[in-house]
Design goal:
Layout (H helix, E strand, L loop, with lengths): L7 E3 L6 E3 L11 H21 L5 H8 L16 E4 L6 E5 L1 H11 L4 H12 L2 H6 L11
Antiparallel strand pairs: 1-2, 3-4
Length: 142
């Protein structure tokens, strides 16, 4: 590996050659990596304090879900939310903010029966059973 040019150092964490202004006087880790480590530590602390997860358990759940929301299975650029039962506090899994807040929270209010009816509605819309399939031309996507 080539040595960084004058005025630059190699970060021991991300291994990028960065200007010396990104480092503390005798630091080996750039400021970007330090900030990321601080954010991760703050997130871990909040998850432990709020949901009772032990150190590393969020990461275990995240890996088990392949970094995806447990409902929509999409990856998100932000941390996934820890979903929990509001009645007993039991952790259920990790969800994207949309599924956690909009779908479960505001939409279904944590009621499984509402979600089952919503799935049934999407699988067999009552209007199609009564009227047949009706597609309005203006609503079709090109």
């Amino acid at each position: 590996m080539a040595e960084p040019r004058k005025g630059f150092r190699r970060c021991s964490r991300c291994e990028r050659n960065r200007s010396q202004r990104f480092f503390a006087p005798r630091g080996r880790v750039c400021s970007t990596c330090r900030k990321q480590a601080g954010r991760k530590a703050a997130h871990e602390s909040r998850v432990q304090r709020t949901y009772g997860l032990r150190p590393g358990e969020y990461d275990v759940l995240f890996a088990a879900q392949d970094g995806r929301c447990a409902i929509c299975r999409e990856r998100r650029s932000q941390n996934l939310s820890v979903d929990h039962d509001h009645k007993n506090g039991a952790v259920r899994g990790l969800l994207c903010r949309r599924c956690n807040n909009q779908l479960l929270g505001k939409g279904a209010r944590d009621r499984a029966d509402v979600l089952r009816r919503a799935a049934d509605y999407l699988d067999a819309p009552p209007a199609q059973a009564l009227l047949g399939l009706r597609i309005h031309i203006d609503n079709q996507q090109a």
